[in-house]
Amino acid sequence: MLGASPSATSNQCLSKPPSISASPRSSTSTAKPMSLAQLTTSLSIPDSKSDHFRRLMRALVHQGIFSTDQETQSSYSLTPTSQLMLPGNSTSITQLLRVFIDPTTSDSAYVLPSWLKSSEETTKTPFAVLHGHEIFELADEKPEFTKLYNEGMASDAGLVMDVVMRSCRDVFDGVESLVDVGGGNGTTAMTLKKAFPEMKCTVFDLQHVIQDKMEIDGVRFVTGDFFQSVPPASAALLKSILHGWSDEDCVKILKHCKAAIPNKDNGGKIIIIDMVVGAVTDNEVNAIETQLFSDLLMLIAAKGKERNESEWRDIIFAAGFNNYKITPLIGLRSVIEVYP
Ligand SMILES: C[S@@+](CC[C@H](N)C(=O)[O-])C[C@H]1O[C@@H](n2cnc3c(N)ncnc32)[C@H](O)[C@@H]1O
Ligand SMILES: O=c1cc(-c2ccc(O)c(O)c2)oc2c(O)c(O)ccc12
């Protein structure tokens, strides 16, 4: 994928054509469409491979990664999709895409056929069958992959929190303190702290993710295990957590979150940011298809699943909550506010 390739960073003049405005962050750069010759030169592709490269671009145009003028097909521009892959941008998801295409993740898919047929491998994911460890247990053996994974999740947080802050920041209004459960490197909590300076923000995650961080930009870091307990706060945030766990595990995590927040009369709430399969705001066919592929990723790399509303309702009520409200965001995710 050109935009995601480290060698494509010289491709800067493809950034942000003025005609394309669907980037989540509006751009001030003046990007121009590029001809095939300009592209092959800047990507160091020899003339002998120019036509091979043109065929790759043709397929990427068909996929919506680039656009081209219909008549001459002589120049290529970025689309909203490829704008999300530009390096050095706080809403770039290049690092997340690198996690998906890394052989550590993608090779697990090849285990799926034998895994499905085996009655023994019900407690391990295809990922663990291949690597001997689940994804969060690889820090010692594959530190490079764990680093990539944590950076990938942070890049997802950069994009999704940008959308959340633009479309439903009121979800966080009046929240005095918040614990970001499984909050990774703190990207989400830092975005919230910037937007709500009065909010006391805590990131809660495993030792190997947080290491010796104590406090950064007013955000506190606490090490622990959400299957044991969750630090107290007025609200608990679960972003891209529950999709990675079985219904039983989700109920356990949600119960620990419920114990961490004030009761019904005192205004506690849980804020879940995850996919609700079928709850999409636009371009339904593509969005649902991508949600279903994300569900397959959860099948190979995690013990979880992407849930539809009825599946979310079941785990929310099983954990003892009384009420919830779903707000779909642009893209694939929804915000689910959950009340005791
Ligand atoms: C898919 S990532 C999501 C990270 C972050 N919430 C985000 O959306 O960018 C899942 C996170 O859960 C953390 N995690 C996994 N198991 C955990 C546990 N038992 N207790 C606390 N955190 C855990 C992982 O280390 C990782 O940071
Ligand atoms: O490989 C994974 C990928 C993701 C993931 C996160 C945010 C996204 O936007 C997304 O599209 C995928 O989440 C995981 C997870 O939550 C696990 O527990 C285990 C593995 C994964």
UniProtKB/TrEMBL annotation:
Claim: Plastid is one of the keywords in the record: no
InterPro entries membership: COMT-like (IPR016461), COMT_C (IPR001077), COMT_dimerisation (IPR012967), SAM-dependent_MTases_sf (IPR029063), WH-like_DNA-bd_sf (IPR036388), WH_DNA-bd_sf (IPR036390)
Start and end residues of each stretch annotated as Disordered: 1-33
The O-methyltransferase C-terminal domain, residue ranges: 121-322
GO biological process, one term: methylation
Domain O-methyltransferase dimerisation, first and last residues per copy: 31-86
Keyword field: Methyltransferase, S-adenosyl-L-methionine, Transferase
Keyword Transmembrane included in the entry's annotation: no
GO-annotated molecular function: O-methyltransferase activity; protein dimerization activity; S-adenosylmethionine-dependent methyltransferase activity
Record field: compositional bias (Low complexity): 15-33
Domain of life: Eukaryota
Catalytic site: H243 (proton acceptor)
Composition bias, Polar residues: 1-14
Protein name: Probable O-methyltransferase 3
Record organism: Dioscorea cayennensis subsp. rotundata
